[in-house]
Amino acid sequence: MFKKLTGGLLVLSFLVLFLGMGAVEVLALTGEEILGNLDETMKADNKIMEQEMILYTGSGSERNREVRVWNKIGEDGSEKMLLKFTAPANIAGTSFLIVDDDMWLYMPALGKVRRIAGSAKQGNFMGSDLTYEDMEALGSTGFKNDYIAKVTAEEEGNNGRVYQLELIPREGAGVAYSMLELIVDGSKWLPLEIKYYNQSGELEKVLTTSGHEKIEGRWTATRMEMENVIEGSRTVLKVKKVSFNEEIDNHIFTTRYLERGL
Hints:
The chain is built from 4 helices and 13 strands. It has 262 residues and is an alpha+beta fold. It has a single domain, classed as Lipoprotein localisation LolA/LolB/LppX (outer membrane lipoprotein receptor (LolB), chain A). Residues 77-260 form the Uncharacterized protein TP-0789 domain.
Protein backbone atom coordinates (compact mmCIF):
# COMPACT_ATOMS: atom_id res chain seq x y z
CA MET A 1 0.00 0.00 0.00
CA PHE A 2 2.80 2.37 0.97
CA LYS A 3 4.75 1.52 -2.19
CA LYS A 4 1.70 2.14 -4.36
CA LEU A 5 1.08 5.49 -2.69
CA THR A 6 4.74 6.48 -3.01
CA GLY A 7 4.77 5.55 -6.67
CA GLY A 8 1.61 7.56 -7.24
CA LEU A 9 3.11 10.59 -5.57
CA LEU A 10 6.24 10.34 -7.71
CA VAL A 11 4.16 10.15 -10.88
CA LEU A 12 2.12 13.13 -9.68
CA SER A 13 5.29 15.07 -8.88
CA PHE A 14 6.73 14.46 -12.34
CA LEU A 15 3.40 15.41 -13.90
CA VAL A 16 3.28 18.68 -11.96
CA LEU A 17 6.90 19.41 -12.89
CA PHE A 18 6.20 18.67 -16.55
CA LEU A 19 3.07 20.79 -16.61
CA GLY A 20 4.91 23.54 -14.76
CA MET A 21 7.66 23.57 -17.37
CA GLY A 22 5.05 23.70 -20.08
CA ALA A 23 3.30 26.56 -18.35
CA VAL A 24 6.55 28.55 -18.25
CA GLU A 25 6.91 28.07 -21.99
CA VAL A 26 3.29 29.00 -22.63
CA LEU A 27 3.54 32.08 -20.45
CA ALA A 28 6.85 33.27 -21.97
CA LEU A 29 6.32 36.74 -23.36
CA THR A 30 6.62 37.37 -27.08
CA GLY A 31 8.51 40.32 -28.52
CA GLU A 32 5.21 41.99 -29.41
CA GLU A 33 3.95 41.67 -25.83
CA ILE A 34 7.17 43.06 -24.37
CA LEU A 35 7.09 45.97 -26.81
CA GLY A 36 3.45 46.61 -25.93
CA ASN A 37 4.29 46.73 -22.22
CA LEU A 38 7.15 49.11 -22.94
CA ASP A 39 4.94 51.44 -24.97
CA GLU A 40 2.26 51.48 -22.26
CA THR A 41 4.78 52.45 -19.56
CA MET A 42 6.30 55.24 -21.64
CA LYS A 43 2.89 56.67 -22.56
CA ALA A 44 0.59 58.43 -20.10
CA ASP A 45 -2.99 59.67 -20.21
CA ASN A 46 -1.67 62.99 -18.91
CA LYS A 47 1.94 64.05 -18.39
CA ILE A 48 3.59 67.42 -17.81
CA MET A 49 7.36 67.43 -17.67
CA GLU A 50 10.14 70.00 -17.29
CA GLN A 51 13.50 68.96 -18.69
CA GLU A 52 17.01 70.24 -19.18
CA MET A 53 18.45 69.50 -22.62
CA ILE A 54 22.25 69.55 -22.93
CA LEU A 55 23.85 69.35 -26.37
CA TYR A 56 27.50 68.23 -26.65
CA THR A 57 29.27 68.55 -29.99
CA GLY A 58 32.00 66.24 -31.20
CA SER A 59 34.57 68.90 -30.36
CA GLY A 60 33.34 69.09 -26.75
CA SER A 61 31.38 72.37 -26.76
CA GLU A 62 28.17 72.46 -24.73
CA ARG A 63 24.79 74.19 -25.04
CA ASN A 64 22.02 74.12 -22.43
CA ARG A 65 18.29 74.44 -23.05
CA GLU A 66 15.16 74.23 -20.92
CA VAL A 67 11.99 72.59 -22.22
CA ARG A 68 8.47 71.94 -21.02
CA VAL A 69 6.51 68.99 -22.43
CA TRP A 70 2.81 68.10 -22.31
CA ASN A 71 1.53 64.64 -23.29
CA LYS A 72 -2.06 63.47 -23.48
CA ILE A 73 -4.01 60.50 -24.83
CA GLY A 74 -7.44 61.66 -25.93
CA GLU A 75 -10.71 59.85 -25.26
CA ASP A 76 -10.63 58.76 -28.91
CA GLY A 77 -7.17 57.25 -28.44
CA SER A 78 -5.36 60.09 -30.20
CA GLU A 79 -1.80 60.70 -28.98
CA LYS A 80 -0.74 64.30 -28.47
CA MET A 81 2.51 65.97 -27.44
CA LEU A 82 3.51 69.61 -27.17
CA LEU A 83 7.08 70.70 -26.46
CA LYS A 84 8.06 74.31 -25.77
CA PHE A 85 11.55 75.69 -25.24
CA THR A 86 11.58 78.08 -22.29
CA ALA A 87 15.31 78.99 -22.25
CA PRO A 88 17.70 80.39 -23.39
CA ALA A 89 16.13 83.60 -24.64
CA ASN A 90 17.20 83.14 -28.27
CA ILE A 91 15.02 80.02 -28.71
CA ALA A 92 12.37 80.57 -26.00
CA GLY A 93 8.90 80.10 -27.43
CA THR A 94 10.00 77.68 -30.13
CA SER A 95 7.38 74.92 -30.03
CA PHE A 96 6.84 71.47 -31.47
CA LEU A 97 3.42 69.78 -31.72
CA ILE A 98 2.53 66.16 -32.49
CA VAL A 99 -1.05 64.92 -32.95
CA ASP A 100 -0.96 61.27 -33.95
CA ASP A 101 1.21 61.20 -37.11
CA ASP A 102 1.04 64.94 -37.82
CA MET A 103 3.78 67.35 -36.69
CA TRP A 104 4.16 71.12 -36.63
CA LEU A 105 7.00 73.45 -35.63
CA TYR A 106 6.71 77.09 -34.56
CA MET A 107 9.74 79.38 -34.44
CA PRO A 108 9.16 82.93 -33.11
CA ALA A 109 11.80 84.34 -35.46
CA LEU A 110 9.77 83.18 -38.46
CA GLY A 111 6.43 84.09 -36.87
CA LYS A 112 4.51 81.20 -38.41
CA VAL A 113 3.71 77.53 -37.92
CA ARG A 114 5.44 75.10 -40.28
CA ARG A 115 4.12 71.62 -40.90
CA ILE A 116 6.77 68.89 -40.73
CA ALA A 117 6.49 66.76 -43.85
CA GLY A 118 7.00 63.01 -43.66
CA SER A 119 10.40 63.21 -45.36
CA ALA A 120 11.58 65.88 -42.90
CA LYS A 121 10.83 63.72 -39.83
CA GLN A 122 14.22 62.09 -40.21
CA GLY A 123 16.03 65.41 -39.75
CA ASN A 124 17.58 66.40 -36.42
CA PHE A 125 15.32 68.17 -33.96
CA MET A 126 16.60 71.66 -33.11
CA GLY A 127 20.27 70.73 -33.51
CA SER A 128 20.04 67.76 -31.11
CA ASP A 129 20.97 64.13 -31.76
CA LEU A 130 17.29 63.16 -31.76
CA THR A 131 15.30 63.29 -34.97
CA TYR A 132 11.65 64.31 -35.18
CA GLU A 133 10.95 60.61 -35.64
CA ASP A 134 12.84 59.80 -32.41
CA MET A 135 10.89 62.46 -30.51
CA GLU A 136 7.63 61.02 -31.77
CA ALA A 137 8.48 57.42 -30.81
CA LEU A 138 9.99 58.19 -27.39
CA GLY A 139 7.51 60.86 -26.35
CA SER A 140 4.23 59.94 -27.98
CA THR A 141 3.58 56.96 -30.25
CA GLY A 142 5.98 54.29 -29.01
CA PHE A 143 7.44 51.59 -31.27
CA LYS A 144 4.83 48.86 -31.71
CA ASN A 145 2.98 50.48 -34.61
CA ASP A 146 6.12 50.78 -36.75
CA TYR A 147 8.19 47.75 -35.78
CA ILE A 148 7.95 43.97 -35.46
CA ALA A 149 9.75 42.73 -32.34
CA LYS A 150 11.61 39.48 -31.75
CA VAL A 151 13.17 38.33 -28.47
CA THR A 152 16.84 37.54 -29.10
CA ALA A 153 17.94 36.98 -25.48
CA GLU A 154 16.64 37.14 -21.93
CA GLU A 155 18.17 36.68 -18.52
CA GLU A 156 17.52 37.29 -14.85
CA GLY A 157 18.93 40.68 -13.85
CA ASN A 158 19.51 42.20 -10.42
CA ASN A 159 15.91 43.44 -10.17
CA GLY A 160 14.04 41.06 -12.46
CA ARG A 161 13.88 39.81 -16.02
CA VAL A 162 15.85 41.65 -18.71
CA TYR A 163 14.98 41.19 -22.39
CA GLN A 164 16.89 41.91 -25.56
CA LEU A 165 14.72 42.68 -28.57
CA GLU A 166 15.41 43.08 -32.26
CA LEU A 167 12.99 45.43 -34.02
CA ILE A 168 12.50 45.31 -37.78
CA PRO A 169 10.34 47.95 -39.53
CA ARG A 170 6.87 46.90 -40.60
CA GLU A 171 6.17 47.04 -44.30
CA GLY A 172 5.32 50.59 -45.32
CA ALA A 173 6.29 52.08 -41.93
CA GLY A 174 8.59 54.62 -43.60
CA VAL A 175 11.00 54.84 -40.66
CA ALA A 176 14.63 55.95 -40.95
CA TYR A 177 16.20 52.88 -39.39
CA SER A 178 16.85 49.41 -40.76
CA MET A 179 16.83 47.87 -37.26
CA LEU A 180 16.68 48.73 -33.58
CA GLU A 181 18.12 46.66 -30.73
CA LEU A 182 16.52 47.19 -27.33
CA ILE A 183 17.44 46.07 -23.84
CA VAL A 184 14.27 46.24 -21.72
CA ASP A 185 13.92 46.09 -17.93
CA GLY A 186 11.07 43.64 -17.38
CA SER A 187 10.43 44.79 -13.81
CA LYS A 188 9.83 48.44 -14.81
CA TRP A 189 9.08 48.04 -18.54
CA LEU A 190 11.55 50.75 -19.43
CA PRO A 191 14.26 50.67 -22.12
CA LEU A 192 17.75 50.51 -20.67
CA GLU A 193 19.39 50.88 -24.06
CA ILE A 194 18.34 51.34 -27.68
CA LYS A 195 20.72 50.92 -30.61
CA TYR A 196 19.71 52.56 -33.89
CA TYR A 197 21.02 51.15 -37.19
CA ASN A 198 20.81 53.24 -40.37
CA GLN A 199 19.65 51.98 -43.76
CA SER A 200 23.19 50.81 -44.53
CA GLY A 201 23.10 48.54 -41.46
CA GLU A 202 25.64 50.70 -39.64
CA LEU A 203 25.22 51.50 -35.95
CA GLU A 204 24.36 55.20 -35.91
CA LYS A 205 23.12 56.09 -32.42
CA VAL A 206 22.78 54.64 -28.94
CA LEU A 207 20.20 55.77 -26.39
CA THR A 208 20.77 54.93 -22.72
CA THR A 209 18.46 55.66 -19.80
CA SER A 210 19.15 55.88 -16.07
CA GLY A 211 17.82 57.39 -12.86
CA HIS A 212 14.74 55.17 -12.91
CA GLU A 213 12.27 56.38 -10.29
CA LYS A 214 8.67 55.57 -9.43
CA ILE A 215 6.87 58.92 -9.60
CA GLU A 216 3.17 59.10 -8.79
CA GLY A 217 2.97 55.35 -9.28
CA ARG A 218 4.71 55.27 -12.68
CA TRP A 219 8.25 54.19 -13.49
CA THR A 220 10.12 57.04 -15.16
CA ALA A 221 13.63 57.40 -16.57
CA THR A 222 14.88 60.74 -15.23
CA ARG A 223 17.92 60.82 -17.52
CA MET A 224 18.28 59.91 -21.20
CA GLU A 225 21.38 60.23 -23.33
CA MET A 226 21.44 59.89 -27.11
CA GLU A 227 24.93 59.43 -28.53
CA ASN A 228 25.66 59.72 -32.22
CA VAL A 229 28.52 57.23 -32.55
CA ILE A 230 29.31 58.38 -36.10
CA GLU A 231 29.48 62.13 -35.40
CA GLY A 232 30.77 61.88 -31.83
CA SER A 233 28.04 64.21 -30.51
CA ARG A 234 25.48 63.49 -27.81
CA THR A 235 22.33 64.95 -26.28
CA VAL A 236 21.34 64.54 -22.63
CA LEU A 237 17.79 65.02 -21.32
CA LYS A 238 17.36 65.41 -17.56
CA VAL A 239 13.92 65.43 -15.94
CA LYS A 240 13.61 68.27 -13.44
CA LYS A 241 9.91 67.89 -12.66
CA VAL A 242 7.11 65.60 -13.81
CA SER A 243 3.42 65.16 -13.01
CA PHE A 244 0.98 62.51 -14.23
CA ASN A 245 -2.10 63.68 -12.33
CA GLU A 246 -2.71 67.18 -13.72
CA GLU A 247 -5.53 67.59 -16.21
CA ILE A 248 -4.46 69.09 -19.54
CA ASP A 249 -6.85 71.12 -21.68
CA ASN A 250 -7.13 69.91 -25.27
CA HIS A 251 -6.81 73.43 -26.66
CA ILE A 252 -3.04 73.49 -26.08
CA PHE A 253 -2.60 70.78 -28.71
CA THR A 254 -3.51 73.12 -31.55
CA THR A 255 -1.46 75.11 -34.05
CA ARG A 256 -3.09 78.29 -32.74
CA TYR A 257 -1.67 77.65 -29.28
CA LEU A 258 1.80 77.20 -30.75
CA GLU A 259 1.93 80.87 -31.63
CA ARG A 260 1.09 82.00 -28.12
CA GLY A 261 3.68 83.06 -25.58
CA LEU A 262 4.93 81.04 -22.65
